[in-house]
Amino acid sequence: MPEHFIVGRAILAGDAAHVHSAAGGQGMNTGMQDALNLGWKLALTISGAASATLLQTYESERLPNARDVLRTSQTFHHIEIPHGVIGRWIGEKIFKAIQSIRSFGDAALARVGMLNVNYEDSTLSLQDSRQAKPHTHAGWHVLDASCKIGNRANTLFDIIRGTHGNLFFFVGDNPSPSTISRLRAVEQSVAPLKSHLRTHYIVACEAGADTATSDGASVITDGAQYLQTVFGLRAPEIIYVRPDGYIGLRTQHLDDRGLVDYLDLIYAKARSEVSK
Ligand SMILES: Cc1cc2nc3c(=O)[nH]c(=O)nc-3n(C[C@H](O)[C@H](O)[C@H](O)COP(=O)(O)OP(=O)(O)OC[C@H]3O[C@@H](n4cnc5c(N)ncnc54)[C@H](O)[C@@H]3O)c2cc1C
């Protein structure tokens, strides 16, 4: 592994950035996650929309991850592929014994399946929400859930598909007019970023859909409360999901300043260009 993934205009990803034993089957998955993390940051940087620091977060988010994968595959390698027939036999026995302990087996599966990869420590992961459930904190990939847009059945993964970032405004169980108007003001404040961001209101029932209707934003009806259950939502909240599907921000502060400051970490130049 190199010490850096980015030097000047050279950027490393995949096996070029971390090459290791095939034991554990981690190489291709790690490389694809590099690409997913890098693609949107590179696109925003090249188009001149990104903040000056966005691209560096590729290295700060992915390098520790690659180091971790390297360590794990090294361990798998030593257990799975020791030298000699007796060594291999002992290695297999040790591996099977570890797998048979359920808690170890589950932890190993989550690790090898890479479902526990997250960027909680990243400068792009901010959270003040007290509603977040495990694995729905800022820095984790969003979990999928069924919901509806209009009368059409949909899923969260379908809604976030594409190259945009997504902003979700959960209006709460019984939204007051003041909550709706505060969220509308927040929506207005990010209007300069509309070519980069899609906005969605999440309402708890069909009746709330009219209240939240606004130009250009979609209204997601979560009557069966699948989304609310997954995210632990009860009170109003703003959630930003990055183009790679990871949650960047969860905030219960419905003020535009906090959100604009956060989005500047990503889209600073796009906003300053529009306001010129
Ligand atoms: C036996 C084995 C089993 C594996 N099993 C798994 C598994 O189960 N799961 C898993 O996730 N991973 C697995 N891997 C790892 C996985 O195959 C690699 O991590 C992955 O293919 C790396 O993809 P990459 O695109 O980064 O690099 P590569 O696949 O190496 O692609 C690099 C490409 O660049 C080309 N190239 C090189 N130099 C130049 C140049 N100068 N100009 C133009 N082109 C160039 C090469 O020809 C190549 O096509 C396994 C690897 C091996 C060897």
Labels describing this entry:
276 residues; alpha/beta; FAD/NAD(P)-binding domain; eight-stranded mixed sheet; two-stranded antiparallel ribbon; 9 helices; 45% helix; globular; binds flavin-adenine dinucleotide
What is the chains' assembly state? single chain
- Count of helix runs: 9
* Gyration radius, rounded: 22 Å
N- and C-termini, Cα separation: 43 Å
Helix content: 40-55%
Count up the domains: 2
Category from helices, strands and their pairing: alpha/beta
Order of helices and strands: EEHHHHEEEHEHEHEHEEH
> Which stretches are poorly predicted, pLDDT < 50 over at least 5 residues?
none
Q: Overall pLDDT, averaged?
A: 89
Bound molecules: flavin-adenine dinucleotide
CATH architecture of the largest domain: 3-Layer(aba) Sandwich
Secondary structure layout plus pairing:
Layout: E1 6-7, E2 10-11, H1 27-46, H2 56-80, H3 85-100, H4 102-112, E3 126-127, E4 146-149, E5 152-155, H5 156-160, E6 165-170, H6 177-189, E7 197-203, H7 206-212, E8 218-221, H8 226-231, E9 237-241, E10 247-251, H9 256-275
Parallel strand pairs: 3-10, 6-7, 7-8
Antiparallel strand pairs: 1-2, 4-5, 4-8, 6-9, 9-10
Helix pairs in contact: 1-2, 6-9
The chain binds flavin-adenine dinucleotide.
The site of flavin-adenine dinucleotide (FAD) has 9 residues, from helix 1.
